[in-house]
């Protein structure tokens, strides 16, 4: 649609201008207008081709290594999952990741890193869609409307671009009915109503299971064991138990887990003082400031940590660092 409109617009501008000229000039001007239109179109309009949508495995690896702090497990799973899926020309089902952890540990941040290494426009891409239950689906009474709307959105967007990404934030607050309505798109069906969903990416973010992840991390810390030695298998059982037993999140998880629709559960560990310092330094750099270790350390020390006596993990992770930085500098 837009191609034609823009195209016609440039042609007609060229034609209006051309009216005043001789036939030969007219041809030149029209030709010029058309070429100009094509060039502008080429450089302005995001399209679902390799110019705008191309996976950069190296970029993802480097970003996870350099920008994401204290999440060795999440980092490894995400890289493995994305690389495997994106290099598979014929995936059997869409990629479904479920990111879990307490607040400010980097779940949205990781979704952003993923988007930036697939879409040239990153989170601003018209092929990346973020749904927040409280923002998009606030009223439980309108659930039926939301259901059909969400299904139409997913279908419409995947029809536009098979390599679409859907991020569901605050998944634990999402109405179970809505989750049921997206289930068909996550399954192994070859096609649903003639649309192929197998190249799409679904990412669920939630705090569900965050407490049990934190408890394990604390056990390791108290036993004097290095955080890096925490393994996915140390977290899997407690995570799934707490997620299953959580009344709010239990429904969506059971319905998705039962059918093995989630490919990877990705745990995010609570962050320690040293990670907060890293976040503060990164933020200084992002703001174009000179990195100041003393200020970063002071800022990190002033945050709230738990458990109260030992002060091991930041209550809000790396959240609020950005706004706090203004106060310290
Ligand atoms: N592990 C991390 N490494 C680097 N930066 C981080 C990390 N965790 C958080 N941050 C920084 O803090 C900001 C807030 O984190 P983010 O929004 O990803 O948290 P979240 O896990 O989604 O929390 P919530 O559960 O409250 O939504 C990020 O934009 C990022 O700048
Ligand atoms: C537009 O882009 C395509 C490939 O993306 C290229 O082949 C074509 O030459 C470009 N056209 C112009 C006018 O730049
Ligand atoms: C991929 O990422 C790497 C590392 O960030 C970067 O150097 C490279 O230019 C990127 N490649 C493309 C095609 O964008
Ligand atoms: C794609 O999703 C967005 C919501 O992110 C929605 O507003 C839009 O209408 C959808 N597009 C189609 C073609 O369905
Ligand atoms: Mg978040």
TrEMBL record:
Output the PANTHER family linked to this UniProt entry.
TORSIN, TORSIN-1B
User: What cellular component GO annotations does this protein have?
Assistant: endoplasmic reticulum lumen; nuclear envelope
Torsin-1A C-terminal domain mapped to chain residues: 271-328
- Provide the residue positions that the database annotates as binding ATP: 101-108
Localization of this protein = Endoplasmic reticulum lumen
Q: Which gene encodes it?
A: TOR1B
A Gene Ontology BP annotation from the UniProt entry: nuclear membrane organization
For the keyword Transferase, the answer is no
Per its record, how is this protein called by name?
A: Torsin
Q: What keywords were assigned to this record?
A: ATP-binding, Endoplasmic reticulum, Glycoprotein, Nucleotide-binding, Signal
Gene Ontology molecular function: ATP binding; ATP hydrolysis activity; kinesin binding
A Pfam family assignment: Torsin
Give the family per the record. Belongs to the ClpA/ClpB family. Torsin subfamily.
Q: Which organism is it from?
A: Myripristis murdjan (pinecone soldierfish)
- Signal peptide range in chain numbering: 1-20
Which InterPro entries did the record assign?
Answer: ClpA/B, P-loop_NTPase, TOR1A_C, Torsin, Torsin_1/2
